[in-house]
Design a protein that fits this description.
This protein is an alpha/beta fold. The protein has two domains: 21-119 and 248-319, D-Maltodextrin-Binding Protein, domain 2; 122-219, D-Maltodextrin-Binding Protein, domain 2, CATH 3.40.190. The protein contains eleven helices and ten strands. The strands form two sheets. Strands 1, 2, 3, 4, 7, 8, 9 and 10 form an eight-stranded mixed beta sheet that branches. Strands 5-6 form a two-stranded parallel ribbon. The longest helix has 22 residues, at 298-319. The structure holds aspartic acid.
């Protein structure tokens, strides 16, 4: 027994010493979607903003795409809980448990919550050759093309999947889902005309809307946006889709069991990063709002995710939209 206690004390001292030194080597932030997309963009901007408050350490973004974020999230859930493997994921953390029947991790118990990063509206966009020029014309086009419409998404459980499902339910139109490993490749195909429609975060669509490479029809928030580029887009609600509202948020996670001293260091650094004027400027330019409320604390983040699971579960179930 004495020997066991001594060993436990040694193990605790080793963990404590490691926690004190943290970070002493590069940190990986796993992005569970393809490079160049909206989650990736948030992660890369955040990695830059986190570097200084974490003592100048390298922060590497590791894209682990597939299965609507499940593969990357599962990798982090199983990673060594030492603070060197983190996950940046979006609203999928709260919708995947309902959208997908067999998720290979438990959102509520397999992670340490490190704080919410931002909130991002979505936009409904189309291929550039779409003959419609406003939402009214688009809904007429949708009605005339039932059964022939291809709608891209970033895999079952992703934000674009959720938004697309809600859009199909609201417009009572079945569309053919075309899954990708993220919306970066989806938007490339949209620009090329291989798919017709996509619902995606403004952090990905803004540069394409600005360059007129895609057509934008509406935003998914309940109020119009104030970003100069997007302020003239109507909401889907005012376009006739009653109650349609989706806002995407991103949060930072570590594997369950990461020492409290390490998670505190990361959360403290995150709170500094979220006040970084460069980070705020970049995010606001893309239509995102950097978090600045109780959700930046681990407890507030977890409470928010639990509330989001409770909020989305009945909506998803009522829409009858599950996947296996
Ligand atoms: N925007 C994607 C989604 O639909 C994810 C991504 O590619 O970052 O969830």
């Amino acid at each position: 027994m004495k020997k066991l206690l001594a060993l436990t004390a040694i193990a605790a001292a080793v963990v404590g010493a490691h926690a004190q030194d943290f970070p002493s080597k590069p940190i990986n932030i796993v992005v569970p979607f393809a490079a160049g997309g909206p989650t990736d963009r948030v992660a890369r901007d955040l990695a830059e903003a986190l570097r200084k408050p974490l003592g100048g350490v390298s922060i590497v973004v590791d894209n682990v795409p597939g299965a609507g974020s499940s593969i990357g999230a599962a990798k982090v859930a199983r990673a060594n809980p030492d603070g060197y493997t983190l996950l940046l994921n979006h609203i999928g953390m709260s919708t995947i448990p309902t959208l997908v029947r067999n998720v290979p991790f438990k959102v509520e118990t397999d992670f340490e919550y490190l704080g919410i990063v931002n909130d991002v509206p979505m936009t409904l966009i189309s291929k550039p050759s779409m003959q419609a020029n406003n939402y009214k014309e688009l809904s007429a086009w949708i009605a005339a093309n039932k059964g022939k419409i291809n709608l891209g998404n970033a895999g079952v459980g992703s934000a674009s999947h959720l938004c697309g499902l809600l859009f199909q339910t609201a417009t009572k139109t079945e569309m053919t889902p075309v899954p990708y490993k993220g919306t970066a490749p989806a938007i490339t195909d949209l620009i090329g005309g291989q798919i017709d429609l996509l619902c995606d975060q403004t952090t990905n669509t803004s540069p394409q809307i600005e360059a007129k490479k895609v057509k934008a029809f509406a935003v998914t928030t309940n109020k119009r946006l104030t970003t100069p580029l997007l302020k003239d887009l109507p909401t889907l609600q005012e376009s006739g889709l009653k109650d349609f509202q989706v806002t995407i948020w991103h949060g930072l996670y570590a594997p369950k069991g990461t020492p409290a001293a390490v998670t505190k260091k990361i959360n403290d650094a995150l709170k500094v990063a979220l006040k970084d004027p460069d980070f705020i400027k970049k995010q606001e330019g893309l239509g995102a709002v950097v978090a600045n409320d109780g959700r930046v604390e681990p407890d507030g983040h977890k409470k928010f995710v639990v509330a989001e699971i409770a909020k989305w579960s009945p909506i998803i179930k009522a829409a009858g939209v599950y996947a296996d």
